[in-house]
Amino acid sequence: MILVISYDEDHTLDVVGRLEAAGREVVRFDLADFPAQGVINLDYPDGGPPDCTLTAPTGSASLADCRVAWWRRVRPFTVDRTLRTARDQGFAASETNQALYGLFHGLGCAWINPPELDAIAQHKPYQWETARRVGLMLPRTLVTNQPERARRFVQEVGVGRTVFKSFLAHADAWRETRLVRPEDLEHLDAVRYAPVIFQEFVPGADLRVTVVGERVFAAEIDASATSYPVDMRTVVDEARVRPVTLPPALTDALLRFMRRLGLVYGAIDLRRRPDGQYMFFEVNPAGQWLFVEHRAGLPISAEVAALLARIDEHGPERATSSPSMAGSTA
C-alpha cells in the first residue's frame, strides 16, 4: 500500500491516478482533517503487532502493510470548534501531533521525503551551508534583524542591486522577492521586528530543477522580458519556459546536495548568470512541478509515480532509479 499525505488542491491526484491505473493501492490523508473529522486508532494487543488505522473523509486504511509513503504537503491540524479556549485547542492539536507523528515515524516504510529530514531541510541557512559544502555557488547574502547592518549591506551592494525576501512563502501572507528602492531605505528600521534575507541581485535566467530520486529534470524560466523579472514566480505565464540540460558537474553537485539533506524529492531554484555561472537560491522539499511539466514537457509526474511504484514493489532499496538513470537530465 502507498500512503500519500496531501490534499486535493496540491495537484497530487494525477500521480495517484497513475498509480491506481497501474493496480497500486493508494490511500491519501490530509492532516487538516485530524482530529475534527478524522479518527485515529492505534491498537497494541498483547504479544502481537499493532493495528494502526486512520479514517478520514478521503478514506480509511490500516497502515500495517504500508511500504512507501509520500510526505507531500502538510496542513495544520483542525480541532473541534466546540473547544473555545486557546489552551484547549492547543492541547488537542498537541495530542494529535504526538499520536500521528509517532505513528508515522514508527512505520517500517520508505518515505519521500522522510518527515523529520523534510522539516529540517526547509530551513534556508541550513540549505545554504549544505550547498556551499558541495561546491554550489551562492549570491552574496545577509540575514539580519539589525537595521544598521542591513543599511551597510545595501550601501555596499547598491540600491537597485539588492533584493530582500522572506524565508517562507505563506499562502495567507505571500511576499514576492523585491529590489530595494531608494524609498525603501527609510523603512529599514522595521528589520528589527524579524530577520530579513538580503541578497545581491543576480541577473540572468532562472532554472527550476526538479529532482526525483536520481533523476534530474531541468527547465529554464526566462523572465527577463516580463513585467516583473525580479521574481519569476509572479510572471511564470509570461516567461519563456524550455527544457535544458545541465552541465554534468552541476548535476553531480545537486545530487550530492540532495543526498546530504536526505531528500528523495526536491524542487531547486538556480539562476544562470550571463557569464554562465550557476547560482543556488534554495530547494523546496515539497515544491510544485506541474507548471514546468506542462510548459517544458518534462515527465515529472510519471517519474514520481514510477518511483513510488518501484518502492512499493521492491522495497526501500529501490528508492532511486537504476544506475543508468543517475545524473540524467531531461
Automatic annotation (TrEMBL):
Residues 128-309 form the ATP-grasp domain. InterPro entries: ATP-grasp (IPR011761), ATP-grasp_RimK-type (IPR013651), MvdD-like_ATPgrasp (IPR048936). Pfam families: ATPgraspMvdD, RimK. One of its GO terms (cellular component) is cytoplasm. It comes from the Bacteria. Keywords: ATP-binding, Nucleotide-binding. GO terms for molecular function: ATP binding; metal ion binding; ribosomal S6-glutamic acid ligase activity. PROSITE patterns: ATP_GRASP (PS50975). GO terms for biological process: SOS response. This is ATP-grasp domain-containing protein. It comes from Streptomyces gilvosporeus.
